[in-house]
From TrEMBL, chains A, B, C, D:
TM ranges: none
Record keywords, A-Z: NAD, Oxidoreductase
Pfam families with a match to the protein in the record: 2-Hacid_dh_C
Native source species: Streptacidiphilus jeojiensis
D-isomer specific 2-hydroxyacid dehydrogenase NAD-binding domain span: 122-299
InterPro entries: D-isomer_2-hydroxyacid_DH (IPR050223), D-isomer_DH_NAD-bd (IPR006140), NAD(P)-bd_dom_sf (IPR036291)
Protein name, as recorded: NAD(P)-dependent oxidoreductase
Length: 347, 347, 347, 347
């Protein structure tokens, strides 16, 4: 290590499951190396990552990624100021409580995906509203319907009754892209006081009413013990006839058997991006189900979203190095970091 | 005719090509009959419409629809105050100049369709941005790609460079639904001064620059002699690599051979709702063309749009009857009414 | 007249009551002269304006301003395409019905002032909400109140109940500048169907309810026979205690005696820009009345508003010369042009 | 203490400098007492507050207010989960680092005042733009100017060049209320990465350019060592001729001598709400200075702002009691809590 680097803060990097180039633009990666002494655990050679990590910890200023960081390892990193998670999920291989006790910033990259998910969710909703993919398929098969003929069930989103289950990053981004449609948005989010929702221009509403009054219903909740099968068979039975459901957060929030049965029965239409089992079994009946738009967990993971992670990491590292609080990534809440039940996502 | 009706203004109605129930809700139709003596040319019995029309003209307050109204017929309607067109196109079977000379309101229903077209156009754009219908088809064929794998060319609409060719009703409605995406919108519209475009928050731009700088390019222009093949092969060659084109106004504005060749060559993607020949020939190669979303002239003609026509007609009739100017339908411009070259649309 | 000018359309100009330089920037004036043969009636020399006008009429393409144009004069102007009013009021010295019968565009410059009036109206409302001018006066007299002490009656505009009487150019501009306050806006406008108001995101409401439910009430109506003393003593008695009234359109719409009595009684506060008699008599009691912000008909007539008139005139002349409809100035409605009862305004 | 209260969490309350009724509505106070065992230090009787505090600490769940809490006192409060500051300033009588080390939430009520300050700042800006208080004074003295006469220097805010120094709570609230004016907003905030500013639709800009290009310049920065006299004489000399300056955050950020000299010289106009010395000396020359709007630290402290504090406290206490993170008050940043140099404000 050249002596001039000695003054640079040490950043430990473990980009997996991403290749580094997915989350850092060349410019961002260059800046990272210019400003910090980067210890890349994946460049460390097979089997040596743990060793390299242990060696780097005493001088480490920040960890980018999610290598195993139990309490004893954290204890050997007295200068550690931040752990920057780049996956969107917090796994229990890091002792987050130890971080909080030390005042080490624990940061997540959830905001990186929110815009991409919101745009995809709106795309699914408009598809369901207007039959875009259904009629594209018909056109390719030579059975398209012109003008009004294929539009019997088409609806407008403008001024529509819209429901959100959950109002975190996804809900806020989706509310923003819906602005120009002037919808009435009812939101059920048990973690947020009514005043916060009103401040965002949405109506705080109970779960039952949100479901029963929504022509467009977006499932945007994360998974916790409490939210598993939040949208169960009983609640799905109260969805208005002809409603459009869009699922883009996490599959366990919905009872899929009931969901698909409702679509099959012609009760509502559904745009589905997340699945209880991924990949979906080859012979799954949903593949032939009309009334759906099928999407393979593609809402968030687009190039622009991934590359924004690197920019966020770089901006927040710089702020922390300057003695300022980070502002781009999302501070994990001590109360919540252990409650999420999201599976790892690969692909 | 009961004597009590004598005091009601006489409205001549010819709803075709629509059935009356497509454009009037039951409530609106009831209100129409309650407030006016309605002479329905289609209820007149076969072959008698002309006769009924001629008989009603001397007392006619307004004509809703587009029966033949040459100068000599208009001359026999001294009380006529308005001609309310419900088709979206002005055909030469009405002597519009005679109407303008008489101060008879000539009103069009273009605004009725604008919101539906704008939402469909955005739906097509988001589909092209994210591959929604492409991946739905793949999913149904058991070859879906999860997470990042199928997202290599996915792009965000947020903060994107967007171009509009034309800024009439469609452009304004589309600008509004795009609000939440905070795009940069360049507009080419030779009928509008720059100040009007700036007032709407869009950038007045020349044709070449609008095309060459747009990641999303929306063709929203109506057809006139001047706009035929406005987007020709030469201009299409300057569309940025990977751009998304959305065509929802009128087919003659674009050179379709060049358009489809560009898509086939992988230069850009296209969402197409209007076609030079409708129905599209069964064996047309576009049916098998990747890089497109195919739509059968479905953008505007949805139930909510049709039914808004009846409400607009009713509101404006009432204003005119009260001695006030109409405000919901669009006053036809003396300068433009003869310049449009739109074909009749049926369906 | 130089021969090269022969091909230019002839524009007759009578800028009064404005000096030409108030409504045309040097650039706009230069462009006007470059594109048109301008016959300036005021440059014509004393007593000769009528003669010059009569001489120019046979070739006149447009009249900018409001010289006497009775039917017989109009009849001598066969090429006349437009009369562009630059005062904001239509006086009976022009035979407008003859213009309408001929299809001559009759254009008003009302939109030029709307933004200025809207900003002034909001300024008055915020002043009343927070006591800005009242406390500025106190400060200058050495009796200012710090922090909470002077704020007992201060209110927020955010999420407030706002009422508009009238929703023409002023109402639309004011609604736009209020966007960021997310108010509930109730509008009474008997000339507009409910659907138009809803389309603008405001609530169509009856007169009594609009008045009785508004914490901020803006009087934005123009004067007609019907709107004289629209806000009379009886209605003023229903204004909520502590409300803020802002008057920026036309004085005759309000009963001023009742208005000032209400302020004097501490029932509401008022920001007043228009007066039944201007100048207001030197000894008028309003000059000493607390609970008011006094403004001397200053809301609309600012340099930026005046200069936009010249730009609007130029843009619309150019469109008309190209065979296109004007879009910047406001087409006068045949039904309304004779109904306004505004006095001339000088200053 | 009734046994039934034993199960309620203990909340220590010291509302001063506010009376309790200023920050809690009767409903909020009732709810507070219903859900928590409230130990009100001010109800404790003279001289006994410390004693009561010490006695309550071992069971304390939260402290609302800012009693002396050095490390040794905090050490005697093992169940303490949150310190909720209700003054807007963090004083050194609390050992915040000890709180952070313990994972005790340290919350501030800055957001409570932001909307009130933003509306006042806009009111001052519109007053300066249009001369509202100046002309109100003239009117009361019988020397008002009608229509254009008094408007020579009036300007529009629409589409104006606006500059913000600082983009915390105040800047965000002000940006929102400015939405309808479609301004270009340049922001200098050295604590925020450019991406954050862009995300809010403002332009990240250097200090010099922000000052030199702003027709409306808002000083919204808090005071730290670095920001003292941020706007100094040299920088003030670059303010555009005729600009409007609005000071609503903290006086030390500006060199007041240079500021007032600039106004006196006719270089710019200023709306001033905060002062280096409060009360301002009775004989201060600013009291007679034209070109100013004078305000006595009244921007934030209005009833609606104060009462929102109680609601925020109640909402966040409830979230914390439910094991969720607080969301309404502002989490103090470990890095910043010691850097602010705001004086106590009384009134």
């Amino acid at each position: 290590m050249p002596s001039s680097d000695a003054a640079k803060p040490v950043v430990i990097l473990q980009a997996s499951p991403h290749p580094v180039s997915r989350i850092f633009t060349p410019e961002a990666l260059h800046a990272l190396h210019e400003r910090y002494t980067v210890v890349d655990l994946e460049g460390a050679g097979p089997g040596t990552a743990d060793e390299v990590l242990d060696q780097a910890l005493p001088e480490a200023f920040a960890v980018v990624g999610q290598p195993d960081l139990p309490a004893e390892r954290l204890a050997r990193a007295p200068k550690l100021r931040a752990v920057l998670n780049i996956e969107g999920n917090f796994y229990p291989n890091v002792d987050y409580q130890a971080c909080f006790d030390r005042g080490i910033h624990v940061l997540g990259c959830g905001p990186a995906y929110a815009q991409a998910v919101a745009e995809h969710a709106l795309g699914l909703a408009l598809d369901l509203a207007r039959g875009i993919s259904r009629e594209d398929r018909a056109f390719r098969e030579g059975r398209e319907n012109y003008v009004a003929t294929g539009n019997a069930d088409a609806v407008l989103l403008r001024n529509a009754d819209v429901g959100f289950l959950g109002f975190g990053n996804l809900g806020r981004a989706l509310r923003t892209v819906l602005t120009g449609f002037a919808p009435t948005i009812r939101v059920y989010d048990p973690w947020l006081p009514a005043a916060v929702l009103r401040e965002h221009g949405v109506l705080p509403t109970g779960l039952a009413e949100t479901v029963a009054r929504s022509t467009f219903l977006f499932v945007l909740a994360t998974v916790t013990e409490e939210s598993r099968h939040l949208l169960d068979a009983e609640l799905l039975a109260t969805v208005p006839q002809g409603a459009r459901l869009v699922l883009v957060s996490r599959a366990p929030v919905v009872d899929y058997d009931a969901l698909l049965a409702g679509v099959a029965a012609g009760r509502f239409l559904a745009g589905i991006d997340v699945w209880p089992e991924e990949p979906v079994p080859a012979d799954h009946s949903v593949r032939a189900l009309e009334g759906t738009v099928l999407s393979a967990h593609r809402a968030g993971g687009i190039p622009a979203a991934f590359l924004s992670i690197g920019d966020m990491v770089l901006d927040d590292l710089d702020l922390i190095a300057r003695g300022l609080p980070p502002v781009r990534m999302q501070a994990a809440a001590r109360e919540l970091v252990g409650r999420y039940r999201n599976r790892p996502v690969t692909g």
